[in-house]
Amino acid sequence: SVQLEMKALWDEFNQLGTEMIVTKAGRRMFPTFQVKLFGMDPMADYMLLMDFVPVDDKRYRYAFHSSSWLVAGKADPATPGRVHYHPDSPAKGAQWMKQIVSFDKLKLTNNLLDDNGHIILNSMHRYQPRFHVVYVDPRKDSEKYAEENFKTFVFEETRFTAVTAYQNHRAGPASYQVDLSSSNCQCGLKITQLKIASNPFAKGFRDCDPEDWPRNHRPGALPLMSAFARSRNPVTSPTQP
Amino acid sequence: SVQLEMKALWDEFNQLGTEMIVTKAGRRMFPTFQVKLFGMDPMADYMLLMDFVPVDDKRYRYAFHSSSWLVAGKADPATPGRVHYHPDSPAKGAQWMKQIVSFDKLKLTNNLLDDNGHIILNSMHRYQPRFHVVYVDPRKDSEKYAEENFKTFVFEETRFTAVTAYQNHRAGPASYQVDLSSSNCQCGLKITQLKIASNPFAKGFRDCDPEDWPRNHRPGALPLMSAFARSRNPVTSPTQP
DNA sequence: TTCTTGTCACCTAGGTGTTAATAT
DNA sequence: ATATTAACACCTAGGTGACAAGAA
Predict the structure, then answer these.
(1) For chain D, which bases have at least one atom within 7 A of a protein Cβ?
(2) Given pLDDT bands bounded at 50, 70 and 90, which one contains residue B96?
(3) What is the distance between the alpha carbons of residues B182 and A160, in angstroms, rounded to a whole number?
(4) Is the distance from CB of B237 to CB of B189 less than 8 angstroms?
(5) CB-proximal positions of chain C, under 7 Å
(6) Is the CB of B204 under 7 A from strand C?
(7) How confident is the model at residue B120 (pLDDT cuts 50, 70, 90)?
(8) C1' nearest to CA of B105: which nucleotide?
C-alpha cells in the first residue's frame, strides 16, 4: 500500500485549484510528489515510476473577472506520453520502504521536442499524476506476467492544471468576486501565495516577519497560517466593505 | 578492472604531498576518489566501498623552515576502522559500469566519537585509500565464499596526509628552501594553490583572470597552467636573487 | 487579448580556504 | 610552539515567482 506524503498540503492546493508551471527547460512540481510504501517484499527488486494522464479532453482558460476556470474548447493534440522512473530504480523493497520516496527530480515541460527526458504536458490542460510500482520478476518468461507484476496508485488530490504562468494569480480590474461558490477558489488565498508560503525556494517573496513562523511550526500545523492571515485583506476579498 | 579518474590531477597532488583536511563535522576529499569499472557481470549485484589504511606507524609534523615532512614519533592509537559504502550500493554491474562512480559523499573527520558514519582519521598521519568491489553472492551459504567474492584496488597516487589545516602552505620566516631535492615538495607550487586552482568550490580564492582558463581548458591539459605560472615568483622561490 | 518566453533578484543547500582565537 | 576550532566571505549549483517583452 502507498501513503501520500504532505497530503494536507496537497489538499490545500487542490481546494484552490492546483497549478503547476511548465517551462521549456523543465520545472519541478510543487508540492513534490512523495510517498511512503508498505508491504513490499524486502528482498525483491522494484521499479518506481510516475506518469500523467489527462483528466478530460478539454482545454481551459482562466477568467480573471470571475476568478474561475472555463472550458476553452477541445484538448490540443496529446503530448508524447512519457514516464519518469525514480532514479533509484531498480532497488530492493527494503530500500524503498525505509524512507520517504521523493520524486523531486521529476520535471514538467511544454516543449514537445524535449530531449532531457522530462514529462511533456500541454499548458492549460488538467492532468492526473499516477504512481506505479513494478515488481522486477526474476523469472525467464517474466513478460507473460507483466499484467500482474505492477500496481498503480492514483491520488486525486494531486490533480493540477499545467500553466506557463500562474493564472489564479490576482483579481481582475473589477477587484471583487461575484460568484464565489461556483469558483474553484473557495477563499481569498491565491495559488502563488500558497506556493510562496510553503515552498522554501520561494522564501524570497515572503513578506511576513521571518521570526514569525518558526514559533507556529508545530507538528500537524502547516506553516501557512501567516499567509492565510494576510489573505484576509487583499483587494479581492469579498468581505471588503 | 578499475581505472582511476583524474589520475593526472592525483599525480600532481601526490608530487607535492597530498594533504586532506579533516574536521569535526566531516570534510570531503579533494580530489574526489572516482573510478571507471570494467568487466563486471551486468546482471549481478555489487557493493562498492572504500576504506583507509595507515601507510606506516608514524606521526608526522611539518617543518616550515625546510618545507618538508618530518617523523614526529610513533603513530597515535588507531582510529575506529570504518568503511564507506557507495550510497548507490547495492546495484547491478551494468549500472556501475555505465558511468563514472564518484565517492563525493565520503567525508573525513578527526572526531573519534563521530556518529555521522564518516571516516575517522588521525590528523598528521599518512593514509592509503582502498577501493573494494564486493559481489553479492545469491547463494544461501554465501558467507563461505566471502573470500573469493571481493576484490580490492589500491592506487598509490591517492595517498595523503590527514591535517586539520594545510601544512605545505607557506614558507617559513627564512623565505628560502635549502634542500629541495629531499623535500616532498618538488616545485614552488603549494598544496593550497593547487587546490584553489583545481577545486571549483575554491574559485573565490583564485587571483587569476577569470577569462583566462576557459581558453586553456582543452582535453588532456589540466586547468592549472596559470597557477603554475604564478608559482614561479613567490617568496619561496629558490630562483629568487 | 491571451498566452509564452527569457531575465532577474532572491532564495536553499552546501563545499572552499582564510583568519583569528583557542587549546594543548 | 604547534595543532585545532569556529566564524566567515565567497563560491557552485540550482529552485522560486515577478516582471517585461514577445508571440499568436
Answers:
(1) 2-6, 9-20
(2) very high
(3) 69
(4) no
(5) 2-6, 9-20
(6) yes
(7) very high
(8) C15
Q: Closest by alpha carbon to B167, among B31, B237, B32, B72? A: B72
Tell which residue, A50, A38, A41, has the closest CA to residue A103.
Answer: A50
What is chain B's mean pLDDT, rounded?
82
Over residues B173-227, the pLDDT tens digits come to 333 333 333 334 444 568 999 999 999 999 999 887 544 443 333 333 333 333 3
Give the predicted TM-score (pTM) of the model.
0.80
Helix (H) or strand (E) holding B12: helix B7-16
Say how far apart CA B235 and CA B240 lie, in whole Å.
8
Angle at the Cα of B85 (from B79 to B91), degrees rounded to 5?
170
B95 sits in which H/E element: helix B93-97
The pLDDT, as a whole number, for residue A189 is 67
Sole residue written with cell 474561475: A68
**Which positions 174-203 on chain B have a beta carbon less than 7 angstroms from any atom of strand C?**
192, 195-196, 199, 201-202
Please name the amino acid found at residue B228: F
Burial per residue of A167-176, b for 16 or more beta-carbon CB atoms within 10 angstroms, e otherwise? bbeebeeeee
Closest among A127, A107, A17 to A62, alpha carbons compared: A17
State CA A93 to chain mean position distance. 25
Which three cell numbers, joined as nine digits, stand for A36?
Answer: 511512503
**Which protein residues, judged by their CB atom, are less than 7 Å from any atom of strand D?**
A 21, 27-28, 30, 165-166, 169, 192, 195-196, 199, 201-202, 204-205; B 23-24, 61-62, 64, 72, 110-111, 123-124, 163-165, 167, 200-201, 203-204
Q: What is the mean pLDDT of residues B151-172?
A: 88
Q: Measured between alpha carbons, how far is B167 from B127 in angstroms, rounded to an integer?
A: 16
* Cell triple for A65: 473577472
Residues 164-203 of A with CB under 7 A from strand C: 164-165, 167, 200-201, 203
pLDDT score, position B127: 98
